[in-house]
Amino acid sequence: MANLPNDSPHRRIAASSVRLQTLAIPANPVPRRAGYPHTFHNYGNRLPLANARPLIEHPLTPTDAPWRPGTPTGPARIVINQHNRTNPEAMYHDPTQELTPGGTHEFSMARYHGRTAVARAVPAVLDAGMRGMGLEAAPEETGAAAEAPAVAGEVVREDEAAVGGEEVEMN
Length: 171
Description:
Elements: E1 12-14, H1 15-23, E2 38-40, E3 55-59, E4 76-81, E5 84-93, E6 107-109, E7 111-113, H2 116-132, E8 167-169
Antiparallel strand pairs: 1-8, 2-3, 3-4, 4-5, 5-6, 7-8
């Protein structure tokens, strides 16, 4: 969510949080005036969503705790197919976009960053640094376990990730 301010807690959200919050979304949409979740139309297919209609939209919080009625929504949203929650997509009210008739900024898609590239790079850098100091890394310290790519839909707890976790960036 690169177009959000650097100090916004919604700028980077763990992908595992998106998946956890998806599971907490109520099954049936409510009328837009009544709150969330509500139908998301994606008029004119403006956003490149992978999910097919019927779509529902729900607020996305920057923590593992799902949004609760009566609390501020923030700029981030989850979009899912109403009947299939296996592919949550994140979007956000982008302050660089035009205002809608309702007074909010148009949505932009969030970008997904898997942990695989970081998990592969850091052990290699550490290994090179150790060799540069004349030290030898033990086989289990070279990151061999980090070679497996992240699998879509896999729930990765942040404390299990080799180096940080997967995240979505609102940009």
